[in-house]
Amino acid sequence: MPRAVLPSGIELEYRTTGDSSHPVLLVVSGYTSQLISWPQGYIDRIVAEDLFVVQFDNRDVGLSTKLDGQTVSPGAVLEAVLAGEPLPPVPYTLSDMAADGIGLLDHLGVERAHVIGNSMGGMIVQTMAIEHPTRIASVVSVMSSTGDPRVGSPTPEARQALLAPSPPDRDDYIAASLDAKVYMSKKYYDPEWMQTIAAAQYDRCFYPEGATRHLAAIYATGDRSAGLAELDVPMLVIHGRDDTLITPQGGERTAELVAGSRYLLLSDMGHDMPRPLWPVFAEAIGGHVRATLASAS
């Protein structure tokens, strides 16, 4: 796959799918997730909505630049945020990760793009819209939140599953992927599929060190509520009723803050992208982009 070298020195591994004459949809993955966390079958359905899809590995994950050796304590960052005290130094914030995505658009010669992000990726695309409004045509924020720690908080079980250290052994890593069941879609839970995805992620790039820096970036960036309330961009917010990692209140509050946004709450969705819902997701995304284009014409 190609790589984009940004002025910051960050290199992003990326992939494009579809007809480049169609509207561009930039896909941003979540916490520690590689671009392959969006399965090709799902991407193909989105492309079938007449979209040109651009995916990339965030910094510190997959085949993009790793900030080896840069240490940070996410717990210390969170404590400072909650106490209203000065933050300890962090390697980067979500603003830097948002700028990476804008840099990739620059590399591709794309002036404005529609953007979609899952979980932390949703936080990043929100930040793109707030900090780079002229570059964003529309936003789809999926199973994400506003950065306000009072909304969308995980259950203790979900938090524990997310933050558990990744086993270094391949077989143990794949087996441990099933611990995510606590926040996955109950109706569509598929352990075989989960283990297939985990194996693919491990084989492509096992890099647990990036997790602490990703988490610190989330905490250090803080509450986006004020910025979201000032947005003038079409936004679709998608969330799952079964989500215990970022509970539905996170999506609800995001939609409340952004004037004119649409909120799609799916009763059988958790904190994942189950295959039976791919047609629903794709149709919603395609419809959102078409509505945006129609209102702009």
Secondary structure blueprint with pairings:
Elements: E1 3-5, E2 11-17, E3 24-28, H1 40-47, E4 52-56, H2 74-83, H3 94-108, E5 113-118, H4 120-131, E6 136-142, H5 156-163, H6 170-176, H7 191-204, H8 210-221, H9 225-229, E7 235-240, H10 248-257, E8 262-266, H11 278-296
Parallel strand pairs: 3-4, 3-5, 5-6, 6-7, 7-8
Antiparallel strand pairs: 1-2, 2-4
Helix pairs in contact: 1-11, 2-8, 3-4, 6-7
Contiguous helical run count: 11
The CATH fourth-level homologous superfamily: Alpha/Beta hydrolase fold, catalytic domain
Q: Could you tell me the CATH topology label.
A: Rossmann fold
CATH architecture title: 3-Layer(aba) Sandwich
Terminal Cα separation, in Å?
35 Å
Number of domains: 1
Helix content estimate: 40-55%
Task: Give the rounded overall mean pLDDT.
Answer: 97
Number of strands: 8
Per CATH, the class reads Alpha Beta
Order of helices and strands: EEEHEHHEHEHHHHHEHEH
- The Cα radius of gyration reads 18 Å
The dominant shape is globular
User: Strand-residue fraction?
Assistant: 5-15%
Strand order of the largest sheet: 1-2-4-3-5-6-7-8
SSE-based structural type: alpha/beta
List unreliable stretches of 5+ residues. Answer: none
Characterize the main sheet.
8 strands, mixed
